[in-house]
Design goal:
Length: 433
């Protein structure tokens, strides 16, 4: 059996054990205090770290101005969809009541979408041409100028036109015409063209923009030498006269007579020789239809007997051409401009390349005008045989360059306006012309 500890000794052990236990508790409490202090310090450090401000994420800024070259879609610059109005002209005489007529105002309000498309297209035209005017200079190739304008138009509409059907939604409404000296209209560089703009050249720049088929057609003339100023002034005055005289119920013959009177009151001195400025009598303004650059009516720029009247709701392009030559143009040079006819016949096509090309034209342009560079851009190759076959079949219309006599100089200015029920709106008007 185990030996038992004496009672006195047990008492001593109890006393000593109590003391030891107290000392141990005290030591533990000191350790706990230290731990608590460390924890508090760690918490304080963590709080300090949390208080550090995080760098704010950079917000994506919406462009408020156009880039150079123009690449910001105008829908971004006008997020509310409210585009600038054109020049508003009230009707005169027997049509003056239209400005305040409640019936006409109601008709006007029904055209909001129609007007928004036109105003968007006009704003794109203004922004692109203002950039072009600042950047055009002698030494540039016509291809460089044309592609600079067209790339800008496509960017500002937001429709590059490379996907099937994209160019029909918005984009180029008329290929960029760069018509130099005696060439008055419909010249655009084809692939491989090396023509370079010169200091002494007079160049007409004519292009259209469309949004949902609403085409804004406008043109101006570039000349670097001030000796041509009077030629440009004559044509600008004639165009503005035609726009001013135009209106609902106005006869075409009256507009043509006013244009000719304005144009031919000028003369121009070039290289010491004085020339009368003549209207190019076989070129006209025209109505514009949806997806159709040339509507059914023509606006002459010389006096004549056309008693046709302008009507409410029509869209017109008034364009006038002045020349130091004969004042008469003929087809000449290589064709670049084409358009599918609105009344194209349904005829069998024996050339397979013509059938496939017609399919491309239908899907990418419809009845909008196009040029050969646009087919190149879509990856079309060796298409000339098919294209000529479509022209011969009467499905596609060819628009060859129109030229006066060599050695002469021609100028052009053009504006698009709408004959709204209440007012005339010169949709393409800008600060430049």
């Amino acid at each position: 059996m185990a030996a038992q500890v004496p009672t006195a000794e047990l008492e001593k052990l109890r006393v000593n054990g109590a003391k030891g236990s107290g000392d141990a508790d005290h030591e533990d409490s000191d350790d706990d205090a230290e731990d608590d202090a460390g924890a508090a310090e760690a918490t304080a450090t963590g709080a300090a770290k949390k208080k550090k401000k995080r760098k704010p994420k950079k917000k994506k800024t919406t462009p408020k101005a156009q880039s150079d070259p123009p690449r910001v879609p105008v829908s971004t610059l006008f997020p509310n969809g409210q585009y600038p109005l054109g020049e508003i002209c009230e009707y005169k005489n027997e049509n003056s009541y239209r400005t305040t007529s409640e019936e006409k105002r109601h008709l006007d309000r029904m055209n909001n979408d129609f007007l928004t498309d036109y105003r968007q297209g006009a704003e794109i035209h203004r922004q692109v041409r203002q950039w072009a005017q600042k950047n055009m200079k002698p030494g540039q190739t016509l291809t460089e100028i044309a592609e600079g304008i067209e790339d800008s138009v496509r960017a500002l509409t937001g429709h590059p036109g490379l996907e099937e059907g994209d160019a029909i939604k918005a984009g180029m409404g008329f290929p960029t015409g760069l018509n130099i000296n005696h060439v008055a209209a419909h010249y655009s560089p084809n692939a491989g063209n090396k023509w370079v703009l010169q200091e002494k050249d007079v160049m007409k720049v004519d292009f259209g923009v469309h949004v949902n088929g609403r085409i804004v057609d406008s043109a101006w003339t570039v000349a670097f030498d001030p000796q041509y100023d009077n030629l440009l002034n004559a044509v600008k005055d004639a165009t503005n006269t035609g726009v001013r005289e135009a209106g609902i119920d106005v006869r075409m013959s009256d507009i043509g007579s006013a244009i000719q009177e304005a144009m031919e009151s000028y003369e121009v001195e070039i290289e010491g020789k004085t020339y009368p400025v003549k209207c190019i009598r076989n070129l006209n303004g025209h109505t514009i239809g949806r997806y159709q650059i040339h509507g059914g009516k023509s606006v002459p720029i010389v006096k004549g007997g056309d008693q046709t009247k302008m009507e409410e709701g029509e869209t017109y392009a008034i364009e006038t051409f002045g020349s130091t030559g004969k004042g008469y143009v003929r087809d000449d040079m290589e064709t670049s401009h084409y358009a599918k006819r609105e009344d194209a016949p349904n005829v069998p096509l024996r050339v397979s390349s013509a059938r496939s090309l017609l399919n491309v034209i239908n899907k990418n342009f419809g009845t909008l005008p196009f040029c050969r560079r646009y087919l190149d851009r879509l990856g079309q190759e060796k298409y000339l045989l098919g294209l000529n076959n479509l022209v011969s079949a009467g499905i596609v219309e060819a628009y060859p360059p129109l030229c006066d006599v060599k050695g002469s100089y021609t100028a052009q200015f053009e504006h698009t306006f709408l004959l709204r029920p209440t007012v005339k709106e010169v949709i393409s008007r800008g600060d430049d012309y």
